Amino acid sequence: MSTVEIDSISQDxxxxxxxxxxxxxxxKTVLVSGGGSGIGQATAWLAAxxxxxxxxxxxxxxxxxxxxxxxxxKGYQAHAQSVDIRRRExxxxxxxxxxxxxxxxxxxxxxxxxxxxxxxxxxxxxxWRAVIETNxxxxxxxxxxxxxxxxxxxxxxxxxxxxxxxxxxxxVAHSCAARAGVIAFSDAVSVEWAPLGIRVNCVAPGxxxxxxxxxxxxxxxxxxxxxxxxRAVGEPWDIAEACLxxxxxxxxxxxxxTLQVTGGGHHWGEIWTTEKPDYFVEASRAFDPxxx
Length: 292
Hints:
With 292 residues, the protein is an alpha/beta fold. The protein has a single domain (8-291), classed as NAD(P)-binding Rossmann-like Domain (Rossmann fold). 42% of the residues lie in helices and 14% in strands. The chain has helices at 8-15, 38-49, 61-73, 88-102, 125-153, 173-192, 218-222, 236-247, 278-287; strands at residues 29-33, 53-58, 78-82, 107-110, 157-162, 169-170, 198-205, 258-261, 271-272. A seven-stranded parallel β-sheet has the order 3-2-1-4-5-7-8, with helices on both faces. The chain has a two-stranded parallel ribbon with strand order 6-9. Helix 4 runs parallel beside helix 5 (125-153) and helix 5 (125-153) runs parallel beside helix 6 (173-192). It is globular.
């Protein structure tokens, strides 16, 4: 085992308790897009700790290499390949390389994505396309290339897409639209691809404390814990466990599902990714009987 020192985030992910049995994914190969940080990084660590060989992808090679080095320092099998999921040719090249170098994969976790907080009335066509192309088109590229590889190899597989829970989620309408498309596509192909032995599910996080919070104002993120009935925020580890629950043996009879991990926020909740407009602040006060 390497004596390389690892960062505090990696050390935390290496030590976190898990509800899964050791060796659960032994002999499996797991591909995680967006594996350089946040939910993707946590999922890669959990898969590795459960015995899987892990392949992570992303656009920033230095972030991927840092995660792989940390995993290797703990004795886990990990590999990285930079890829822009928006570009079909790079995704096709990724799966060709995986087939040649690793024989294929058993599980695909689509965690890559991105958005920026802004009222929809202010979106530029370029900003809209950037989010749609990454979150919807990029996920489609990964899903279809994985499915074609499994079909050609005459083997099944499992896909889990990280989406969003749109209930009360405001000022990221482009991401809500893209992720709704991913959910609808996943529902459809869960039927089409079932004869191929391919399961397709989604995980919808609520308020999760991750590196993605940095794009939001400090005052906004400080209030996030009040956006669900549990009045709490989740961690990337919570989403990682949900993903591998669906992707692994426990989810063997589940396909076409979207698992909400929101602290109940999809039943009752309100998440403003920018400052809450005065109109809605006043509406909230008007609903408060104490204001009568």
